[in-house]
Amino acid sequence: RAEFVGVGLDSGEKGNPPSKFTRVFAKAREHGLRIVAHAGEEGPAAYIREALTLLHAERIDHGVRCDEDPALVKELAAKCIPLTVCPLSNLKLRVVKDLREHNFAKLLRAGVHVTINSDDPSYFGGYLTDNLLASWRGLALTENEVRAIGRNAFEASFLPAERKAALLTDYDAFWASSVA
């Protein structure tokens, strides 16, 4: 147990709503594990809501279909619930037909704590940097938005608070020196 921080729900969402896994996630919470759930990529926004209310997920992997439910988008932003978005896998899975159609920038601008991530890079064709650069270019993200995405990633991590604060200080210092 000492080696584990959290447990996540992942893989194909079709036919596998979070509600099927409530007992196992309740057990994980009893053991003090942090909860993450893959929801709202291939499954509907309702899966995100289930992951939050039934599994008590602290972070949502993907979550891009949250915009089907405007109240959910507002809730994600207000509660600072991170979405770990993988734009290139969303493209490969045809969640979007063109990266320029991706809702990532829209969610970021609505205050949702979105992050850029990779998802099985050898299969979906994109490591973290590839996903970030493709999103920056395809979605016309500003430098300040890219900076916010990085901060969101640190804040979404399950690092101890002291370590997270130190890394955020270093991150902000990096940006301050690169802008100067």
Summarize model confidence as the mean pLDDT: 94
Q: How many runs of DSSP E, i.e. beta strands?
A: 5
How helical, in percent, are the residues? 40-55%
Task: Report the end-to-end length measured between terminal Cα atoms.
Answer: 45 Å
What summary fits the major beta sheet?
A: 5 strands, parallel
| Molecular shape | globular
Order of helices and strands: EHEHEHEHHEHHHH
Quaternary state reads single chain
Q: What is the topology, as strand order, of the major beta sheet?
A: 1-2-3-4-5
What low-confidence regions span 5 or more consecutive residues with pLDDT below 50?
Answer: none
Helix/sheet category: alpha/beta
Number of H/I helices: 9
Task: Work out the strand percent.
Answer: 5-15%
| C-alpha Rg (nearest Å) | 16 Å
Topology:
Elements lengths: L5 E4 L12 H9 L3 E6 L5 H9 L5 E4 L7 H9 L4 E3 L1 H6 L11 H6 L4 E3 L4 H4 L3 H11 L4 H14 L4 H19 L1
Parallel strand pairs: 1-2, 2-3, 3-4, 4-5
Helix pairs in contact: 8-9
